[in-house]
Amino acid sequence: MEGWHPSLEGLCDELLGEEQLLSQRTESADAIRTPSDSSEDQQNQVQGLGTVSIWWAKLLRKHSTLTKSRADHNRPVTVLSGCTGAAAEIAVFKALGIPFVVLSASDPSLKCRAFVEANYPEHVPLHWFADIEDQYEGKACINHPSSAGCDACSVGSQGLDFAITGSPCHPFSVQRPDRFQGGIAEHAEFNTTMTSLLRWSKRFQPKVWVMEQVEGFDMPMTKNDKDPERTPLRMPGP
Questions:
Q1: pLDDT band at residue 38, thresholds of 50, 70 and 90?
Q2: CB neighbours of 166 closer than 8 A, spacing ≥ 6?
Q3: Model pTM score
C-alpha cells in the first residue's frame, strides 16, 4: 500500500513544523522568565484559553493557499463517507483546495442525501447506499438499483486515502435519560457502531479514518462503573 496522499502529507508536515517551533519558543521563554513573571503568566494563560481550540485554523488556511500552487496533486484524494449527515468532509476538502473524489457514501436519511446533492452537485458520491451495511457488502446502490452489486471503493492497489464516519450517537449520548442505567448494549443502534462500523473499516482499510462520536462514547457504561477502561470506545472488538 502506498503512503498518504501528498495533500495529507503536506498538511501533517505543516502541523509538525509549527508544533516544533512552538516548543522551541516555549523553552526559550521559560529559560529567561523571572519569578516576578509568574502571576502575569497565569493571567495571560487564562486569557489565552479561548484560542487554544482554534490554533489549527491559521495552519489550515496557510496550507490551503499552498496547495493551489503545488504540482503534486496529480491524483485526487479518494474519499469514503459513512453516515455523516451533511457531508462536512466535502466542504473541508473544498476549503483546503485539495482535489478529491467521493467514491461512495451511505446515509439512511433521504433528507441528508438530498442536502448533499443540492449543496455539492459537483461532488455527489459515485455510489449512494442506504446504510453502511449495504456499503461494505457491495449491494446495489441507490444510484444503480438494477445493478447486481456496486463496488463502494474501487481504488485498486493504491488503497483508500480517507474515510469518515458518523454512526448513531443515541446509545452513547449523555442527553439520553437512561444513558448510565446499564442498557447501552441493548439499544437498537448499539451494534451499528460496535459491530457494523468495525466491519466497514476492516473491509475498506482507509489510510486515514475520522470517526465522529459524542463524548459519552468514552464514558463509563454505568454510573457505578469505576473502571476507566470500561467505556464503549475502549471495549475490545468482536
A1: very low
A2: 82, 83, 84, 85, 212, 213
A3: 0.70
